[in-house]
Specification:
mainly alpha, Rna Polymerase Sigma Factor, Chain: A, Arc Repressor Mutant, subunit A
């Protein structure tokens, strides 16, 4: 189908607006999932680069969804690449659990790091970024009921990991 009207394309000003509006949110989402500042920045930069390359095919109204979807898939690719270069023993050796922390944010981050990558992704999209089940499904490629199941399982795992709030506080 040929498109003669180019008004649906993202302009440079709209792209710059996306950078200003969404870069922090995408960065927080990626950082919550991979816990590595430098890798998170690289993934965000790659995601914006990919969006710029496709800007002629993306409308400004769909840019946020496209960006988070691209960032999610770029993160998954990065995680898979990391797994090939880092042995599981090394990764697990760095993860020590101590329930005597007083810093709730630190305990929550430790708890999140124990979740499988898909659960960590959907829980951060829902509870940290505020996306709807439908939006999370579009970003991750899951259907809405799968999203709900993963979120339920993630919350149950977090509850079991953290245990009583009395231990944390």
């Amino acid at each position: 189908m040929s498109r003669l009207n180019k008004s649906w394309q993202m302009t440079t000003a709209e792209y710059n607006s996306c950078v200003g509006n969404y870069s922090d949110g995408v960065y927080r989402f990626i950082l919550k999932n991979i816990k590595d500042d430098e890798r998170a920045r690289d993934i965000v930069q790659d995601s914006f680069f990919k969006m710029w390359e496709k800007s002629k095919d993306i409308s400004f109204e769909k840019a946020k969804s496209y960006l988070f979807t691209t960032a999610y898939h770029t993160m998954i690719d990065d995680i898979r690449r990391q797994k090939r270069t880092t042995s599981l023993e090394e990764a697990n050796a760095d993860l020590t659990v101590n329930h005597s922390y007083n810093d709730l944010q630190h305990v929550l981050n430790l708890a999140l790091s124990t979740l499988p990558e898909i659960q960590r992704a959907v829980i951060t999209l829902r509870d940290y970024e505020g996306y709807s089940y439908e939006e999370i499904g579009k970003i991750t490629g899951l259907n809405e009921s799968q999203v709900k199941v993963y979120i339920y399982r993630a919350r149950l795992s977090l509850k079991n990991y953290i245990g009583s709030l009395d231990r944390v506080l």
